Every structure is written in C-alpha cells, then in structure tokens.
C-alpha cells in the first residue's frame, strides 16, 4: 500500500507585528451533552477581548453545527509584573522550514506584550548554553537580540534549564518579580535530562517553567518539569501564528489573567470518537480549533459482552460455543442481517432481531476449527442506526495462520499528506484488542522506519514526520502476542516460541545485520534470520547477539524478562534434571527437527525448535546446525567475552549448557516477570 507525504516550501516574511488571535483549550465533557471550554481572545496589540457573547460564536464538531449556550469572561485583574527568561533552541534542526521564524516572532510577540515594569532575559542552547541578553526592560533591545538566534549544534535540555551560566533557572533566579521560563524546542534532546534536579532547582528558586514543542509531541520529562513547577506544556505547534498564539496564552496565564469560558450542546455519536471542534468569531475574523475524546456514555452503539472472543486450543474437528450478550445503547436498533467474514469455521445462531433502547439479547457464537492455525472472524451487524462489528479469533498459541489475513486499509495508495499534519492509519484482519506494528518507508520499501508496535483498535493517529518523499509506503504487521503464547511449567511461565522483536522495549530499533564481515566485529546489539532468510525467520524467530540480550533499553517485551541461567536451572530441576529435560521441551516429530528427534515429547508445549546459530566467523558460511540444535542465550555472563547458553540436540534427551562468545547469534526465550 502506497502513501505520499507532501512537503510544501513557502516563504513567510519576518515581522514582529501581532495579529488578533483566538485559542480554545481545557475542554470539559463531564456534563455531557453540554460541553465547556476555556478560551483566550486577543486583539492586535495583545489585550484580552472580553466583550463577546454567545451570539458572536459559531461552533462545529466534526463539521456539524452545534448550539452555543453561553459565553462568560471574568473581570480583568491588574497584570502581574514578570521576570521572564525566553529559552530558545538553536540546535541544527531549527533550520528546517519556518522554525526559526516561529521562535523569532513568538519572542517578539511576547516582548511587545510584557506588562508594566516587567523585565525579560534571553538565553539559547544547543550542546552548551549562551546568554543572549540579561534582564532588561528595553523592548526594542530584546526584540533586536531575539532576532539574532541562529541554528547550530545538538540539543541538551540540562544546558537549556539548569547548567551555569546561561541555564534558564540560573538566569531567572536573579529576577525581581514573578519568575517564569518560556522554553521552545523542536525535538528530542540528545539524552534524557536530569528531570528531578531541574524540578527541585526550579521550585527552590520559585521559577515556573512553560514549554513549547515545535512539530513534535512533548516528551514526558518536559510534561513533568512544567506541570510540577506550576507551568504548562504545548505540543505539535506547526505554524508561526500558532507559536505566537501559544506565547500569548502563556502571557495571560503568567500575568494572572483568567480565561473566558464557552459552552455548547453536543450530540450522541455512533461511537466514542475524537471530536474536532472549530470555533469562530466571524465578526472579528477569529478562528481556533481543539480536540476532545467523546465519552463512552455518549455513544449510540451495540455493546458486546464479552468485548471479543478468543478460542484457545480448540482441537480440529471439535466445536465450542460462547454466549455473547448484545445491548442497545442510546437508541432502538433493528438488525436485519449478520455477515461473517469467515463462515467456514465460525457461525452464529441468529441473524436478525429488534432491540429497544437499553435492552439486551443473548446470541451463541460457535467455533469449529479444521486446523490449529490462527483464524479470525468479523461479524458485521447490518442495522438501521450505527455500524457495528464484532470479532472472534481462535487457534493454538504460536501457530501461524494458513492464510495471512491482516490488511492495511488506510492509507491505500495515492494519498498526499502534509508533513506535520495528523492522519489516521487503519487496518483489519486482527481483532481490535490485538497489537500490531506500524512502519513507513520513504524509499519504496528498501528501509523501514518504526512508528509503533503497540497500536491497537484497528486505527492509529499518526503525526506525519518532516521526511518529504513521493515514493512512500506504509505497512502493518501482526505483532506476536506473547501473552497468548505462554506455557506454565512448575511455578514459571515461559514463552512458547522464540523471541521475534526488532525494537527494544523503549521503541529504539535493533539493527538487522546480514553482512558476515560486519556481524563478527559487532560490540552492540543486532539480530538476523538464519541464512538471512525471512521464511526461516518466520518459523524459528530471530537470532540475537548477546549485546542485544543485555542492552539496558530492554529486549524482552513488557511483563517478561530474558531467561537467566538461574531460570533454566529451575526449569531443568522441575523436569527431572539435565539428562531428560531436553526431550520434554522439544517439538515432536520431524517437521522441523532432523530424524531422529530422540525423546521428543513436548510435555508442556514449550515447542523447542532447532533454529541453529550464527558464528562470528568472517567466512560466508557462518550459519550452522539448523534442524539439528536449538540454542538459547541466557542473560548471565560467564566471562568478559562469553555468556551461558542452553541447547538441545536432535540425537539426545539432554538439556545441555555451554559458554558462547558474545558476538554469536542465538535464539532467545523469555520468562514472565
């Protein structure tokens, strides 16, 4: 499936003039269907507009007009004098697009709006920090100095805020009045800042911190720093005008000016969904937008209990029934038909009925598998009110489907997306509860860039990155559900298949290394498939070097850990000792094991597969023992160059152990925390 990201190049002439603006925020849905929101409206010189009434406003939700109930503004307060420090990112990425324009013009807007005897200072940062202007009340001097900020170097948030001599906190603590920092940046720092130390130093010096992120979501560290010092964070700011509006919102908050409030009447929807709110004051040519999540109680829908059905370990040739209760919420429903996407193994006992509002009916869904592979069915309830789908899936944990059914629905080719905008990625072929991995490519599939591996609900809102290309692709991959693929052996819970992840727990990519000349020299984490074959990888999983196993970013999925030598010792003892434990772990038969597969009983469905290994040899044939031996790393080192491993052989009942060099490639099994 192909998508195109469109990147537009345009010119904005730099100016310090401030236009009228409107911003809407803090949407309150607690009294649904009445929705309330805070707003600031500013005139051309930065004064708050308070003389507005309900008749001045036009509000829509997802394009549908709404009735405005009331608008109220509190009485104005005398503005509080500020000692503000503008902390400006001058890292190299600030050269991109209009980011420098945004930081220059937002600073100018701030300086022009400073009330009374307020003073201001300006600092900048990259890998270091710089005093651009110490505290002064001269607005012309401040505007002149703010315009000198250029882009160069890296991004260090400790330098920005807490390192002498130009860290924002160091500057702010010399202020005479209310001390605040307004920091603007366009991306992630080179490393995580000392968040708690920054918070402690800000609080001890009575400094409030605000943060504005250009084009990107705000990092958790900055959310913590701002909220715990009494400030706010603003994320995904994409235009110069938006940046200026945010600075004015911060100004009003910092100087003690309270926002106005607007309320309107919403309506029930076919599902809890993201509501895009557009607010306009036509007489003043003002407009703003905001987003909120509609509450579950507002949804008109067919409600299912259980929310989905998972049939595990139902033997081929048998049948299992499950009762599903269906309730009509907020409307009467007439269901005229129920269509099944997989009627060969799934069925339902009734296909039409009438449900009054808040009434229920019980239906029976049956599963009669013909093989042990993964399968799914989508039940489409054809009705007169709202679309309604239900999902059931079945199969034995770890067994692949006979036919791969996952499908990327949107984007599906030909779309054009603006860099910095948000778009929805959708897919089907799995249940809404299942996680998938999302990736995109800007080189027609030669390389893939990670988006998420915890996306669920059959849709994902994606912030389109600033990576312009007209040969882009997107792909969705069903993520191995290791919580489904688990076996209890004694007091331990083990994965029933080899680990097959290509990202660390924090989302960082693990490099795939196919070149034998590179693999043998690595001292950092990497993975490969046996013989660099995708088809073999689908069966046996990935081979990892030990550097990936012990990487601090975490190789194991959340809730699991890489098996240690001690974990394997507990397992072998429970199975009766090393001499016989291996046979109880090996998959039966010779579909994957070479004949003879001695003693294989697979008593606990551990399903050990002989995935072989990769050596550190610099020769071309550095893969060996496929279908003969199963090898697994432990997380336990044995020397400066070797770690303990466990392995099985097709010719033995035994569970063996050995010391293996770090830069070999072995399989990995995990144990539940």
Gist of the model:
With 673 residues, the chain is mostly beta strands. It contains twelve helices and 41 strands.
Protein architecture, described:
The protein is mainly beta and 673 residues long. The chain has 5 domains: 87 residues, Immunoglobulin-like (Sandwich); 173 residues, von Willebrand factor, type A domain (Rossmann fold); 95 residues, Immunoglobulins (Immunoglobulin-like); 72 residues; 187 residues, no CATH class. Helices cover 15% and strands 37% of the residues. It contains 12 helices and 41 strands. The protein has a 7-stranded antiparallel beta sheet with strand order 2-3-12-5-4-13-14. It has a 6-stranded mixed beta sheet with strand order 8-7-6-9-10-11, with helices on both faces. Strands 25-1-30-27-28 form a 5-stranded mixed beta sheet, with no helix packed on it. The protein is globular, with a radius of gyration of 30 Å. The two termini are 38 Å apart. The N terminus is likely disordered.
């Amino acid at each position: 499936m192909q998508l195109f990201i469109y990147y537009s190049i345009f010119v904005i002439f730099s100016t310090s003039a401030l236009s009228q603006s409107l911003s809407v925020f803090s949407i309150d849905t607690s009294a649904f269907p009445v929705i309330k929101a805070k707003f600031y409206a500013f005139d051309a010189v930065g004064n708050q507009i308070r003389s507005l009434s309900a008749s001045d406003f036009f509000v829509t939700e997802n394009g549908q007009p709404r009735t405005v109930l009331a608008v109220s503004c509190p009485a104005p307060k005398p503005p509080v004098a500020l000692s503000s420090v503008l902390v400006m990112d001058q890292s190299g990425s600030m050269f991109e697009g209009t980011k420098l324009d945004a930081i220059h013009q937002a600073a100018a807007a701030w300086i022009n709006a400073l009330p009374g005897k307020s003073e201001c200072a300006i600092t900048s940062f990259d890998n270091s920090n710089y005093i651009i202007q110490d505290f002064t009340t001269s607005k012309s001097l401040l505007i002149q100095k703010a315009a000198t900020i250029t882009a160069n170097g890296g991004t260090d948030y400790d330098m920005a805020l807490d390192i002498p001599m130009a860290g924002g906190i160091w500057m702010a603590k010399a202020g005479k009045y209310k001390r605040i920092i307004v920091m603007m940046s366009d991306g992630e720092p080179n490393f995580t800042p000392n968040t708690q130390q920054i918070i402690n130093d800000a609080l001890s010096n009575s400094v409030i911190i605000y943060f504005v992120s250009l084009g990107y979501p705000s990092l958790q560290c900055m959310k913590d720093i701002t909220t715990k010092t009494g400030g706010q964070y603003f994320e995904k700011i994409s235009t110069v005008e938006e940046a200026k509006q945010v600075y004015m919102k911060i100004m009003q908050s910092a100087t003690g000016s309270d926002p106005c409030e607007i309320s309107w009447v919403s309506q029930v929807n076919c599902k809890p969904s993201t509501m895009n709110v557009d607010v306009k004051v036509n007489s003043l040519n003002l407009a703003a937008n905001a987003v909120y999540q509609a509450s579950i109680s507002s949804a008109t829908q067919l409600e299912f209990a259980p929310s989905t059905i998972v049939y595990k370990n139902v033997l081929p040739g048998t049948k299992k029934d499950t009762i599903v209760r269906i309730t009509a919420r907020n409307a009467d429903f007439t269901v005229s038909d129920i269509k099944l996407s997989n009627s060969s193994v799934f069925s339902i006992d009734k296909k039409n009925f009438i449900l009054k509002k808040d009434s229920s009916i019980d239906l029976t869904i049956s599963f009669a598998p013909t093989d042990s592979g993964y399968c799914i069915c989508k039940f489409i309830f054809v009705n007169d009110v709202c679309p309604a789908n239900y999902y059931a899936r079945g199969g034995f944990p770890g067994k692949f489907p006979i036919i791969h059914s996952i499908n990327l629905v949107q984007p599906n080719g030909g779309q054009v997306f603006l860099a910095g905008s948000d778009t929805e990625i959708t897919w089907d072929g799995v249940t809404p509860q299942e996680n998938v991995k999302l990736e995109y490519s800007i080189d027609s599939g030669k390389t893939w860039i990670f988006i998420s591996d915890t996306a669920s609900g059959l849709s994902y809102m994606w912030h389109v990155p600033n990576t312009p290309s007209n040969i882009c692709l997107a792909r969705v991959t069903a993520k191995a559900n290791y919580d489904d693929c688990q076996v209890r052996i004694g007091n331990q819970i083990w994965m029933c298949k080899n680990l097959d992840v290509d990202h660390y727990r924090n989302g960082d990519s693990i490099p795939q290394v196919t070149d034998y000349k590179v693999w043998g020299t690595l001292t950092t984490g990497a993975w490969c498939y046996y013989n660099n074959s995708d088809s073999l990888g689908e069966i046996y999983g990935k081979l990892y070097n030990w550097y990936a196993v012990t990487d601090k970013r975490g190789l194991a999925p959340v809730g699991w850990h890489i098996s240690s030598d001690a974990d394997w010792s507990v397992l072998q003892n429970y199975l009766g000792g090393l001499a016989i434990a291996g046979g109880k772990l090996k998959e039966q038969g010779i579909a994957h094991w070479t004949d003879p597969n001695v003693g294989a009983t697979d008593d606990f469905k551990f399903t050990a597969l002989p995935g072989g290994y990769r050596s550190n040899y610099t020769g071309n044939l550095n893969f060996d023992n496929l279908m003969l031996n199963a090898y697994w790393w432990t997380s336990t080192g044995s020397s400066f160059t070797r770690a303990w491993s466990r392995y099985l052989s097709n010719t033995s009942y035994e569970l063996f152990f050995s010391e293996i060099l770090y830069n070999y490639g072995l399989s990995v099994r995990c144990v539940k925390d």
